Amino acid sequence: MNILEKSQSIRNREKKASDNLEKFIDRINKHNPKINAFVELKTDEALKNAKEIDNRIANGEKVGKLAGLVIGIKNNINVEDFHVTAASKTLENYIGTYDATVIRRIKAEDGIIVGMTNMDEFAAGNSTETSFHGPTLNPRAPERIPGGSSGGSAAAVAAQMCDLALGSDTGGSIRNPASHCGVMGFKPTYGAVSRQGLLDLAMSFDQIGPFAVDTSGIALMMDVIAGKDSLECTTINWNVPDFSASIKDMQDSLKGMRLGVVQEFFDVSDESIVNIIEDRINQMQEAGAEVVELNFDSLELCLPTFYLINFVEFFSATRKYDGRKYGERIEEACGDEVLRRIHMGSYISQKEYSGKYYKKALQARSLIKKEITGLLKDVDVLVGPTVPKLPHKVGMELEPMEIYAYDILTVMANLSGIPGASTPAGDVDGIPVGIQFQAKPLEDEKIIQIMAAFEELN
């Protein structure tokens, strides 16, 4: 039973919302002390909500699209009455006073929020090891990182502690942990989903998106959270598709689909990962897809461009954490990686250096965006590895550039604002590997349809 079928069975009185939640609570109690995917839970309140939903269904009242489904929320998205710390001691005692737009939409559709999930501090990381709450472990690859920065959300879904979860993606922070944990993760087009209520890492990159174990869960959550928000200036006024309806009949849907395969994506990836992704591309080709070989000359330019802009925007975003209105002064409370990014952003922002670094990075971003537009011109999607290497073991010391290298295949979507997704492709000695799909802006539906078609093949 997939997520959409489960939601329908609850609304059809075949399952109870309270039973669904209680099963997840049992798993959380059993596994979360070790995995550390959730950093705060409100199970009593969640059970109360579940029982109310059951009563409304029993009385024949209308319920929402997410009725009875259990959801985890990344700890940098405001949820009223939960601690919203962004996994930092800086905000250790901050309690959300309002719901972010995506949370209001989830609650309006009767989704049951069970708790807040772990993450890298202020989303500055790729491993969920920099959290003030301690690291999260990968349920699918014990002793290894789950990826980051939304590692808690990916791990919660992978460990079957909830039906769905939300994360945020700045340079791969949804797709990276989805790949490492063997689940699905979707980064929408920039502006397709409201960022109101999100604690920013980098304003021009950040986007909220869902995790699920199957495509129907991704589609269902996008049905709920996508769309224009008058409270948030970056959202787009677009015709939001009926994502769930669009994936109902996917038979022969890969026939005629043009897959852009970029050689440079494979050149920077480990051989064991390349072998899996090439096998899956061959599988899609056998199902009727057409492969178009492409080259992306600016791939090596993406990481330095992304991080230069990231550092400046992060420095700007953290100036509000000065200890005056709430929390502590960030420089006095944060961890090493956050402090490194603040110092780098401060340095690059200085007048004498902004032209040398930041303005050139903005120029490079325009060049990259133009080249990506060219790559996508005559294909439906770009296909390749999500992450170029396997997740390292928790506690292994890496140099900053080794950590940032996890992002080389994901940052281009954030630099250009296009949608991207990771879906399970296989494993290397039991360690999950994801395949990434990227498409033109606002072709989010096309990616989700290809995810569904790929899921049927496997």
Q: What does this protein structure show overall?
A:
By secondary structure, the chain is an alpha/beta fold. It has 2 domains: 3-246, Amidase signature (AS) domain (Amidase signature (AS) enzymes, Alpha-Beta Complex), CATH 3.90.1300; 258-424 and 431-457, Amidase signature (AS) enzymes, CATH 3.90.1300. Helix content is 41%, strand content 14%. The chain has 18 helices and 11 strands. The chain has helices at residues 3-11, 17-35, 43-58, 101-108, 151-158, 175-181, 215-225, 243-246, 263-267, 271-286, 299-317, 330-333, 336-349, 351-354, 358-376, 400-404, 411-416, 444-457; strands at residues 38-41, 70-74, 112-117, 164-169, 184-187, 207-212, 258-262, 290-294, 381-385, 420-428, 431-438. It has an 11-stranded mixed beta sheet, sandwiched between helices. The longest helix is centred in the first third of the chain and has 19 residues, at 17-35. The protein is globular and about 65 Å long. The protein starts with a helix and ends with a helix.
Please describe the topology of this protein.
Blueprint: H1 3-11, H2 17-35, E1 38-41, H3 43-58, E2 70-74, H4 101-108, E3 112-117, H5 151-158, E4 164-169, H6 175-181, E5 184-187, E6 207-212, H7 215-225, H8 243-246, E7 258-262, H9 263-267, H10 271-286, E8 290-294, H11 299-317, H12 330-333, H13 336-349, H14 351-354, H15 358-376, E9 381-385, H16 400-404, H17 411-416, E10 420-428, E11 431-438, H18 444-457
